[in-house]
Amino acid sequence: MQDIYEIDGLAEPLCRWYQKNKRSMPWREAATPYHVWLSEIMLQQTRIEAAKAYYERFIERLPDVKALAGVPEEELMKLWEGLGYYNRARNLQKAAKLVVERYDGVLPADYDLLLELPGIGNYTAGAIASIAYHIPAPAVDGNVLRVLMRYLNCRDDISKAAVRKKTERSVMKIIPEDKPGDFNEALMELGEVVCIPNGAPLCGQCPVAETCQGRIAGTQTELPVKPEKKARRVEKKTILIFLTGERVGIARRPETGLLAGLWEFPSLSGHLTMKQTEEYLKQKGVQPAGIRRLKSGRHIFSHVEWHMKGYLVEIMPEQAQDTMQEVVPDIVWTEKENLSKQYAIPVAFHSFLKQIPD
Ligand code: SF4
Question: How distant, in Å, are the alpha carbons of 7, 9, 15, 17, 202 from that of 211?
């Protein structure tokens, strides 16, 4: 594999196009390092339109790195609720604490120092350095890889680290010193609105169409090349919403793994019938005062799918404490009306959350 991709000639038409077509985004209004950082982390998992509301709410409550470093974790999780990938929020806070400790609350204007912070990889470091500090640094994400592989009519596998590195070197070679941030944003923006994924790119609107080798060869819809995704594993679960009077039972998930440390409704693995669920509870000494079936739910994570059945189980107040400990050792009973306000319940459980009777 050669050391570098030849993409000379891309920068000028791209930056010109970006100047005219730049979309307005809340984080672009005052592109401070904190704003760029936060928006990039949010955009790793969320569409731009959806991220805007989260971003604005987050910034209003936590306007700077110091505020982020000091917010209680429960509140941070609540602010992040709905965005998924909660470890990203935890890493944001870990990094914010280090930035307060080492740099008095200001992200360092240095690509390598940025890379030392938790949750900041090459792409995010490049985005912060180039957009907020105007330092020439590559910010290569999936959008950029797609655009460049199509532009070059190149069949290299974009899931390979070597291809990403080579792309970073190539970008670095042509990045304009006077507007590195604009160049990076232009490439990303082209990938988001013109050279779009999953379907036909809008080559008729593309500022680099004349020199695009993929378009000329007619291969643009076949590119980029990436390995087939493995089928997601399906996990069957039975969700149990325990109710006693006006209170609902929730528990914390384990500190590692999927949705680590977040709140959930207790569950059993597999799809249990109502009878099996009752029997299971009886074995544990719990005699439900009532049980009814809920609508099933499904949640898709990157590698796993949860297929969930659910039951609403009413528990007599005298069984809610000691007896229930046999079923869910760390159960916490919370008032129904406080549940959503006080606890971050992952989206995976929201279809069940909505079925709790008023
Ligand atoms: Fe992508 Fe088409 Fe532009 Fe080539 S011409 S970069 S394939 S949008």
Answer: 10, 9, 15, 15, 15
Say if ligand 1 is within 6 A of residue 143 CB.
no
**How do residues 108-146 score in pLDDT, each as one tens digit?**
999 999 999 999 999 999 999 999 999 999 999 999 999
Nearest to 295 by CA among 280, 308, 305: 308
Shortest-distance atom of ligand 1 to CA 213? 4
Q: Could you tell me the two tokens for 112? A: 């390598």
How many CB atoms are closer than 10 A to CB 340? Answer: 15
Q: What is the pLDDT of residue 47?
A: 87
Q: What is the Cα–Cα distance from 255 to 272, expressed in whole angstroms?
A: 26
pLDDT in the model for residue 2: 64
Distance (Å, whole) CA 110 – CA 305: 40
For the CA of 209, the nearest atom of ligand 1: 5
pLDDT value of residue 109: 98
* Angle subtended by helix axes 180-193 and 142-152, to nearest 10: 80
Enumerate the H helices of the chain as residue ranges.
Answer: 11-21, 26-29, 33-43, 48-61, 65-70, 73-80, 86-103, 111-115, 122-127, 133, 142-152, 161-174, 180-193, 213-217, 274-283, 322-325, 336-342, 350-353
Nearest CA to ligand 1 atom 5: 209
Place of tokens 């129904």: 336
Residue with tokens 């999953």: 198
Q: What is the pLDDT of residue 1?
A: 56
CA distances from 195 to 140, 141, 198, 221 (A): 15, 14, 10, 10
Asked if 272 and 284 count as a contact pair (C-beta separation under 8 A), the reply is no
Q: Output the pTM of the full model.
A: 0.83
Q: Is the confidence at residue 177, as pLDDT, over 90?
A: yes
Catalytic annotation present for 318: no
